[in-house]
Batch of 3 targets.
Target 1
Amino acid sequence: MFGRLVAALRDDRAVVHECRHCGTTVEPSTVGCPACESGDIARYEL
């Protein structure tokens, strides 16, 4: 039962992609940050 509850909650999580250098939020397909040109893009599941 607990496992099903956890699985259901995980389906509603948000995914954020942002530049690790300046924090600008970017689209998932972004390769380089448009604000600072860094190629270090992070993906966070909330």
Note: The radius of gyration is 14 Å.
Target 2
Amino acid sequence: MSTRPSPPLRPLIVGLGESDGMAAHVRALRRLRAEGGDRVAGMFGTEPPVGYWVGEGAGAEPDAAGVDVEVVDSLVQATQLLYPGNTVVHLCTPPGDRTVMHELVDRGFRLVLLDAPLAVDRDGLRRLVGLAERYRLRIGVVDPWLNGGICRRLLAAVSDGRLGAVRRISVRHSVPRLAQTFSAEQPGTALDVEPPHSIALALALAGMAEVAAATVEDTPTVDGRRVADMGGARLTLRHQAGATTDIFCDLAAPMAEQQVIVEFDKGSVQCNYPLGTEAGFAQMYWTTENGQTRRDIFADDPLRQGFLDAYRLFVTESWPQPSLRLHARVVELLADAKALARRSAPTPGSIPPVQHPTPISVQQPTPVPIAAQQPVPVPFQQPVPAPVAYQQPAPATAAFQQQAPAEIFHQQAPAAMPVQHTTAMAVQHSAPTPVHSPQRRMDPPTPQPFPAAQPHMPQPGSAAMAAAPPPATRQIPQTARQMVDYARRPA
């Protein structure tokens, strides 16, 4: 039976240069030791973490990490600096490559901290669990989505029941990682990148589930290159309690976003996770069934909090840890999703797994002349009143004088329309008054004196008509009476 380690504990980071080992684990440990306060009092010693480079980083100089890490070139050298019983191994190798664990076990190390997921398939999971059971390993799993403040607040809402039961969980992973995908030797599938974290969150909130649907997509073609199954993924889970989880992952997104929407019986909450592995701010938007809303913004450092939780469990709990079964179930669901995605994929050689929209050749209609498109303007037809004898214009009434300027303006015919001026219109507009100024009132036309008596107009066909002067010699009409007479002249 294994004995519990006694603090202080010292980290051994295996896999510097792999995954997020140096960039994330070392910096999160530094923040934990510097800002932990009473929570980490006596938990860590004064010595820096020890780092063991794996693969391309093996044999690197001690300062190659660029951080306060004492780098060794073998696990034999690490055992000379460390006491395995009080050493926590941060295994930062990819989940598909845990072979170094056998050497760690042979050297006496028993406290192991892993990044989620535990493995990429059921075979890898069985090997890991079998090794842990045989050597009584204490395994902790770090998952930013479970260790952060968002998950803690959601679990509190589920436990107290103030919003009712969980009905639907919608997850969106938008990650711009095309460069990393194209440079990887074995990129895997899009289901291995982000969905493990959201599946773990869904199981924690809504209980155990089964895979209902799963698909994967290729990357877009860039410079003639295309990586299969690494463009994105879709996954649907059916929970035993009745809830549904929909996960969408886009690994070719132009911008990063990690968002979760949880719908309850009596409300919903939208959660936005901090981007990256460094400390940031998380946001939650709560909405109740009666429309009340609340916005919570708080500083969140899920990786540091995950390390603190794991170190506490190492010194207080025995294996297996409570969350280990949940993370094992995540691996099983991922394996089911990959198998379902393969069955849903098209037959090789027929069409690509991702059917990107094909540009459709649309025949443009033959341009129609503008003259044919525009409606033919209809000349403005002023109603012709019955002929009446000329009457002296009466002074304008008070009601007409008080008419609003806008109404007067709309009484005028549009300037762009041809107007047929009849005899009546000639009389009406004999002395028009500008109305463009809203401050000016329309005054009645000033009465003009009658012109001198004109000789009797000759009748057509008479001798007098032949002797009449030509029209060009007639006087240009100036008054309203003259305009009437001019309009009535013979053709």
Note: Confidence is low (pLDDT under 50) at residues 58-66, 347-365, 368-373, 395-442.
Target 3
Amino acid sequence: MKNEKRYLTVKELAAKINIKPKTIYSWIARKVIPFYRIEGIYRFRELEIDEWLSRHRQEAS
């Protein structure tokens, strides 16, 4: 799988899910989203983010 080992920056993740980077930082601070911190730089494994998004999917009523 192509995205299995791909890591995203805050900016890339924000663009991927169409939200502001500020929201990503808020989620990091509250430990809402899976992330890695490498010497102060945040990264997100794309596969883990896709799984996280699937778990947070809401059915339309």
Note: The domain at 2-55 is CATH 1.10.10 (Arc Repressor Mutant, subunit A).
